[in-house]
Here is the input.
Amino acid sequence: MKDKIIKKIEEYDTIIIHRHVRPDPDALGSQGGLSEILKQNYPEKRIYVVGEDEPSLSFMMKMDDIKKDAYQGALVIVCDTANEARISDSRFSLGDYLIKIDHHPNEDKYGNLIWVDTNASSVSEMIYEFYLHGKEYNHFKLTEKGAELLFTGIVGDTGRFLYSNTTEKTMHYAGELKNFNFNSADIYEEMYKVPMNVARLNGYVLSNFNYIDPGVGYIYLSKEVMEEFQTTPTESSLLVNTFSNVDGLKAWVFFVEEPDQIRVRFRSKGPIVNTIAAKYNGGGHPMASGATVYTIEETKQIIQDLVEVCK
Ligand SMILES: [Mn+2]
Here is the structure.
């Protein structure tokens, strides 16, 4: 597969790299890491990265501003994006050939060539593996910036090597990347800094979340509370794991009130919660899913459903 991708890259003069909307460190790390590798090893080619800016991750890299014409006869590579609808910048379809590189289940099989590895912790890990292959057979080199981006992506998707997707290979690659000359302490500081208003809301969540036997946690963040803390529903939703390490907790739910709906975020340490999410206009992973409801009555039913699966 890696050879097929390299062969395609060699066929094209313009290569445009996309990733998913509302990017996380792995989306940008894999996109930027691949771009660094290709720029370094094919200096004669035009390599672009596109997609909307994410201010909280601006320390990682800047996007290129390109015209529609650039897509004519171009190779387009999409990183870390499970389905077409989530690709940032809809012009991805204007290219001549499309490659998907991802680690989510391959449910939406878009693209002319697909490289999906669901065992990879991150697409950044896959791109590092791609580089290793290129290094062996095509004399690929990796820049410091490229190594930094891939490291950041791996750290992001593994929660600093905490999640169960962290394998021996993940650590091995991260170790090799660490040999490059970048400052990982600076990266951690940028990645995990929290705005003051969110830190204060975090305190509120810890003080006010509810716990019921057998292991169900929940909190309802009303418009009034978010106004008091001056946080948006999106910022507030990031606190979903705030009380995850409370002893005895098995599954929990975060209700965030939006102008015309209530967003529901489920998390679990064992009980399957996506079946509950599916009941309420949602879905997702077995241990992490989301839903949407419209009434307080429905939020109470959800808590009851959670109690049932935790029994
Ligand atoms: Mn990812």
